[in-house]
Amino acid sequence: MRNRQIFLKPEEIPRQWYNILADIKINPPLGPDGNPLSPDQLAPVFPMNLIEQEVSTKRWIDIPDEVMDVLSIWHPTPLVRAYNLEKALDTPARIYFKNESVSPPGSHKPNTAVPQAYYNKEFGIKKMTTETGAGQWGSALSFACCQYGLECKVFMVRISFDQKPYRKTMMAAWGGNCVPSPSMSTKAGREALELNPDTPGTLGIAISEAIEAAVADESGQTRYSLGSVLNHVMLHQTIIGLEAKRQLEKVSEYPDVIIGCAGGGSNFAGLAFPFAYDKIHGKNVDIYPVEPAGCPTLTQAPFVYDHGDTAKYTPLLPMYSLGHTFVPPPVHSGGLRYHGMAPTVSQLVDEGVFEARSVTQSKSYAAGVLAARTEGIIPAPESCHALALVVEEAQKAKEEGKEKVILFNWSGHGLLDLGAYEAYFSGNIKDIELSQKDLHGSEKVYEDYPKPQHLKSV
Ligand SMILES: Cc1ncc(COP(=O)(O)O)c(C=O)c1O
Could you tell me which residues carry N6-(pyridoxal phosphate)lysine (predicted)? Predict the structure, then answer.
């Protein structure tokens, strides 16, 4: 039998996260007055122990035993050699994927939900609020809150709420309370509904609602949690790349190409950052974040300062942004419908360490179906975007006759996304052509904001 899955022994699992802020330069987040934000200004929204992680520049940060204990329910996640996909593509490339679909909620998201819930609990918080696009993040935080005895309230982008009703049930199974966003329970939600009663919702609006719900709790025992974008989220996700590196070492491999889909940037960063460290220090590796052509933040938008949410509750973040009022078309990969991008990922795209790519919905589902038929797992629609580029790179390796090693993140399964597959099989997945007006119409929202510097870390 071939050695298809590569595991780690418990004692080989990384016990520290890798913090890329030790190795790169980055523009600071700015407060409402346009000055760099002080950590205290974030205190009503996040617990101080997580704020300290957000701003830390220590290269290695210990994973607490209590967090490791919960992560060990599904970690280490397997690194899989995709022999069948290689064969179907008749490629000389050796393709490996990190299988993050094996977590209880079905994606990489609990890698950060668990430590976030833990640090909130440690700080004395009783309830967490959040947004969710695809539903994977809301499920992950519901699961994590359940592990530590916290309450969890989730604002789910309406289009996804309607597309996948069982996500709400999954959250309820772990004790989470999921409502569609925009809702009437917050000012941000009411304003969005007044503007457009039929809005499909956006992650930007849902983030505003969840922040508002957290800071409105006068007891001070509620905090907000973000499933992507922020530095501490990228930090927690590095367990993916750190494990992958050790697993590849076991079979004496090192990747030539690294691929991950990018919504807010966390599963991509989690896989890529430990290898970006090598690239910053001289190693030759191509690293590609992949986004949908229907919401092409990194490939079409400028690098600016913008808010992370629609109601402008978040600080100004240095990132690629389509504008915080941008309403992405209702593409089926709900987790990739975000106007912005993690500042750390944005920085490394701006300086050319990462090269962003975009793919259409139809190409991504074609790759997803091929992957399901060869490797067995039905990928989440978000993961299908990574797969589309894997197929492209494997075909390129064939044309060039090169034995490349391709590593990608299979960020989640699509077992609650079958409506999207149904639409694909019945020919109802449309490739969205965004006009210049659609694409750039929301950019005026940040016209008068300060501009980030083009810094060079390398
Ligand atoms: C399975 C899956 N992959 C990827 C993403 C995109 O998020 P991020 O870019 O933060 O990894 C999501 C978001 O919901 C997701 O559910």
Answer: 109
Ligand 1 contact, 265 CB (< 6 A): yes
Domains of the chain: 62-106+231-444 (3.40.50.1100)
Measured between alpha carbons, how far is residue 32 from residues 21, 237, 306, 322 in Å?
A: 23, 29, 11, 20
Q: Which of 170, 266, 268, 291 has the most ligand 1 atoms within 8 A of CB, as the residue to mutate?
A: 266
Q: How confident is the model at residue 2 (pLDDT cuts 50, 70, 90)?
A: confident
- CA triplet 93, 95, 99: central angle to 5 degrees? 175
Atom from ligand 1 closest to the CA of residue 413? 1
For the chain, give percent helix, strand, coil, nearest 5. Answer: 45, 15, 40
Tens-digit pLDDT profile for residues 377-432: 999 999 999 999 999 999 999 999 999 999 999 999 999 999 999 999 999 998 98
Ligand 1 site, residue 361, Cβ cutoff 6 A? no
Structure confidence by residue, pLDDT tens digits, 200-229? 999 999 999 999 999 999 999 999 999 999
CB-ligand 1 contact for 133 (6 Å cutoff): yes
